[in-house]
Design goal:
With about 525 residues, the chain is an alpha/beta fold. It has three domains: about 1-120, no CATH class; about 120-280, Ribonuclease Inhibitor (Leucine-rich repeat, LRR (right-handed beta-alpha superhelix)); about 440-525, no CATH class. The chain has 17 helices and 15 strands. The strands form two sheets. A nine-stranded parallel beta sheet has the order 7-8-9-10-11-12-13-14-15, with no helix packed on it. Strands 1-2-3-4-5-6 form a six-stranded parallel beta sheet, with no helix packed on it. The chain is flat, with a radius of gyration of 28 Å. The chain starts with 9 loop residues before the first helix and ends in an 8-residue tail after the last helix.
């Protein structure tokens, strides 16, 4: 039987109830204050209430709860504004326009409640735009922040927020994590380098076209950076090369599709100066999103300068590489996401033979020539594989060879995705041998039915299964769902039942009732 819902702790009940509490407070106070005729008196009363509420409630919160409570507060403010807007739409003659505007102003002023000394994390990307803009005005009040995630600013359309960001950042000397997409600039980076260059570890400037090589020079002075997001900025390969040469602790270039171009600049510099190639600590490789495919010379350069690569997003093309063999030079590679190629003809099997024992994660996307023997080979060569995924791959007709060829038990597999069109025997055979699987994902082209799950469970009871994500099905019914709930003691999530054509809405409703009546901790929505 799936796990029962455990009673919530008093702490969790309080946190979950805080949003409703804030909504009631905000609506009650705004309803009272709106009747004060004088703007000055109304604003003074609101300021006094906010100061008292902070002093008596928010400033006394334990530090480990501040972030959660603040997120609930911001959500409550947004909810109150939405309710007021809905009420306004119902007012056909618009005779209360002034009162509506004043009420919304009062509600949004409650964002001032977050100005408390114990706030060290401010996360704005998911805050509604109206409040986010207002919060930008308050940034000057948060010099104590360790993490500041500003979201997308104006989306790159305007520099209207630049002065506010720069002014606030000039006081934030403790930042460890800073993120601003689209609106970051060279001027801002100069301030960041001077103010928090000694503490910053994570810097995210994606899609900020106002960041150029001048900004890269300031970033290069922030020696402690370990994670850098520079996807789609105006930094050239020469600027990227400066960063790679200067940032000795850099581990991750998130979506760093410019890596090969920057390494080529570095290689020319080393050649001109007759120096050895630098050894970088980078752990991730991301294929170029401009020209996609890389040749032997580029990948050899990556293997020499970035020997510690652990995760690779690679796109294969016969026009650039004869085979996958060049990837075997990455001795620390544990996670491979590969697009393209043929399993046998392009010697992907030879690569698996060499690096299979160290792989923990393997995703094959648009790979051809996959058959039963290929799966047997993977089961034998990848004993530590915890995640395996096939996306839009071409599988040959299922056929077990006459010679002795058995699939090994894949004990380490916890997550398996089959999002490819294939004979159902493939997924049945694989699941029968994945005894510790926790998450199963299938796509719309992967057809599996009730009788297939019966066959799977005859060999593997799926005792560890926690998540079932079958995006659509023409033959599965709730018979399988009830069987899994009954036999999988860890099952807690089932997705996309609405897209199972054999399952009706009333049946889903009955399943929901069954889950609630039995107090089961299973999410089907």
């Amino acid at each position: 039987m799936s796990p029962r819902c455990k009673p919530k702790s008093l702490e969790n009940i309080c946190l979950l109830s805080s949003k409703l509490f804030f909504e009631n407070v905000i609506e009650s106070i705004s309803h009272t204050l709106i009747d004060i005729p004088s703007d000055h008196q109304r604003n003074r009363a609101l300021e006094r209430f906010i100061d008292d509420f902070k002093a008596n409630f928010l400033e006394g919160l334990p530090s480990n709860q501040v972030h959660s409570v603040i997120q609930h507060l911001l959500s409550a403010i947004a909810t109150c504004v939405d309710r007021k807007k809905d009420h306004w739409r119902m007012d056909e003659d618009n005779k209360y326009a002034s009162k509506f505007t004043q009420t919304v102003y009062i509600i949004t002023e409650f964002v001032n409640l977050i100005i408390i000394p114990s706030l060290v994390h401010l996360d704005l990307p998911n805050v509604v735009k109206m409040l986010r803009t207002k919060l930008y005005d308050l940034l000057i009040h948060f010099p104590q922040l360790r993490s500041l995630l500003l979201g997308s600013g104006s989306g790159g359309w305007s520099q209207v927020f630049q002065p506010k960001f720069i002014q606030a950042l000039s006081f934030m000397d403790r930042l460890v994590h800073f993120s601003l997409n689209y609106d970051a600039s060279d001027e801002m980076l100069e301030v960041i380098q001077k103010t928090c260059g000694g503490t910053l570890k994570i810097l995210d400037l994606e899609h900020s076209f106002q960041v150029t090589d001048a900004g890269a020079k300031d970033i290069s002075k922030i020696s402690g950076i370990t994670h850098l997001h520079l996807f789609h900025t105006s930094i050239t390969p020469f600027g990227h090369a400066i960063l790679l040469r200067s940032l000795k602790e850099l581990l991750v270039l998130v979506r760093g599709d410019f890596l090969c171009d920057a390494l080529e600049v570095l290689s020319h510099e080393c050649h001109d100066l007759q120096q050895d190639y630098p050894k970088l600590k980078l752990r991730e490789f991301w294929s170029s999103e401009q020209y996609f495919f890389h040749d032997t010379e580029q990948m050899t350069l990556v293997s020499h300068m970035c020997p510690e690569i652990r995760k690779m997003m690679f796109q294969f093309s016969e026009d650039h590489l004869e085979s996958f063999s060049i990837l075997s030079s990455f001795q620390y590679l544990t996670e491979l996401h590969n697009w393209g190629g043929d399993f046998y003809r392009n010697s992907l099997d030879d690569l698996i033979l060499k690096i299979g024992p160290q792989l923990r994660v393997l995703y094959l996307i648009h790979v051809d020539e996959i058959d039963y023997e290929a799966l047997v080979f993977l089961s034998q060569m990848c004993p530590q594989l915890g995640t395996l995924g096939f996306y839009n791959c071409i599988f040959r007709d299922f056929q077990v060879p006459t010679r002795k060829c058995h699939l090994n038990a894949m004990w380490a597999i916890q997550k398996f995705a089959m999002v490819s069109e294939s004979d159902v025997e493939y997924i049945v055979t694989l699941l029968q041998n994945m005894l510790n699987i926790e998450c199963l994902i299938t796509g719309s082209s992967t057809e599996i039915g009730d009788e297939d799950f019966v066959q799977i469970q005859s060999a593997n009871q799926l005792q560890k299964l926690e998540e079932l994500r079958i995006s659509s099905s023409k033959s599965l019914t709730l018979t399988t769902v009830y069987s899994l709930i009954e036999n999988c003691p860890n099952l807690r999530l089932i997705r996309a039942l609405d897209y199972w054509t054999q399952v009706s809405d009333p049946e889903i409703w009955q399943l929901d009732v069954y889950i609630r009546n039995n107090n089961l901790h299973v999410d089907i929505r």
